């Protein structure tokens, strides 16, 4: 028997006391009250949101230190059982905002769909399902994604095997509902993710039909970046007394900081960062990442590339933090790779650059980060690395700070060499000005009997350049062939077969699910190139998948499969294709 709905109500914290409520000006006459959260950048902890110990641990294991603004506001509302309208863009952490309360509310003993998540595209559906899977690691929670393009038979089987949570595109969800392969009887929670996007894609009627079929007693949450009238109409029709959460910030200006951004192809941030660092030759720099794991990985990667980088995050004990801070203050390290929490309260005057490796959640976080540079009357530089899907968030930040952030071009390898020569010449000028060369004058005079002095100088510089830059040249070579970074917890596999061999994403998904026994929903991005392909699988299963694929035939061929290290598409090539992950294959063909 399904449990009665609204089991979300337990643990409801008194969260909204502090907030001011008023009507949001941009929303045309909503019938409900809009809880507009003023910009106080308060530090909320995941422990304050009403999450149980298992979920809090899963979140901590993922390296999340603090909730994002939409999480801080939405999670308590959803746990309290209320309907919700959450105004949030992609990349603001909205998946966890609804997924954590959903996972927490699941009755594991009931193998019936208890939560339904609707997403505009199969790509997002897969991403959301993958995200939930991460939050529920170690439990027996079953999440089934269903979306158009994938053979429906396979979805019948998955649904028959049982699901607690179904994530899907509206068309396919409706299809399953009508065919009887999906029942809403036990659904107590339904989320519309990117509701405005779903309407823009023409899903209005499907959504209406789906929402009308939900049990009367259920909780509904709409997440949407914008609130056009058609969304408001839907909320009026289906939501019961919703809490409308919109994160609103005051306009601010940042006068003493030079702000630029670099647009980076997906998966190329590390390489881009290395190039920007080489070009900017910054002094003390703080690089902000979202998670502790990202801080650790990035600082290690930078050290391998020859930079003096240290991680600083909440998982370190006081002695470690003190050591890292001392090294940074004293100039023994130049780069501090930090989470926001760890960098809070840092008071260091000589920071010349702040780099947003991950774009901030909102303008408040942006301002907090940027405030670490440009201190003591000096001007500072703030650099933000942005992938395609983060561009909208950058625009929001620009709107709120009331100025544009200048775009900059990622330096090419040739730019970096030219810059190094410039720096080299500057050092030489300083040596000449200081007259620190007299012990070599005798040698030059001797050589001058045989060679022209200009040539002697050039040869000496050549020797010096070689000795200084041979290590850097190796790194540059490695950088040019750097692999794309898979999602956290995922590994990228190289498959020695591509489009020209007739390979389609379905072949890979089929081979991996059948031969390695991996659930299709756990498979990540698939990239099919002309004569090779890449597929992301959970790291824990990567070895098993490699072995299984080596022992089978794909499209009747034995294929070379290995863990991907090098990527055959260097960054310049990606940039000239327009970056932003173009050419990424959707696992499931055309939309719907
Ligand atoms: P989303 O907007 O849900 O697509 O999330 C954007 C990215 O932020 C994902 O990679 C999440 O794993 C990550 N993320 C979500 N919440 C947090 C958090 N509280 N702290 C750090 N990273 C997070």
Helical content band = 40-55%
Low-confidence stretches: 1-29, 471-482, 566-570, 576-592
* Strand neighbour order, sheet with most strands: 1-8-2-7-6-3-5-4
CATH topology of the largest domain: Rossmann fold
What is the highest CATH level, the class of the largest domain?
Alpha Beta
Give the helix tally.
Answer: 21
Biggest sheet overview? 8 strands, parallel
Based on CA atoms alone, the radius of gyration comes out at: 27 Å
Q: What is the number of domains?
A: 4
Distance between the termini: 33 Å
> What would CATH call the architecture of the largest domain?
3-Layer(aba) Sandwich
Mean pLDDT: 81
Q: What would you say this structure looks like, in words?
A:
With 592 residues, the chain is α/β, with parallel strands linked by helices. It has 4 domains: 26-249, P-loop containing nucleotide triphosphate hydrolases (Rossmann fold, 3-Layer(aba) Sandwich); 252-413, P-loop containing nucleotide triphosphate hydrolases (Rossmann fold, 3-Layer(aba) Sandwich); 414-466, no CATH class; 482-591, Alpha-Beta Plaits, CATH 3.30.70. 40% of the residues lie in helices and 16% in strands. An 8-stranded parallel β-sheet has the order 1-8-2-7-6-3-5-4, with helices on both faces. A 7-stranded parallel β-sheet has the order 11-12-10-13-14-9-15, with helices on both faces. Mean pLDDT is 81; it is low at 1-29, 471-482, 566-570 and 576-592.
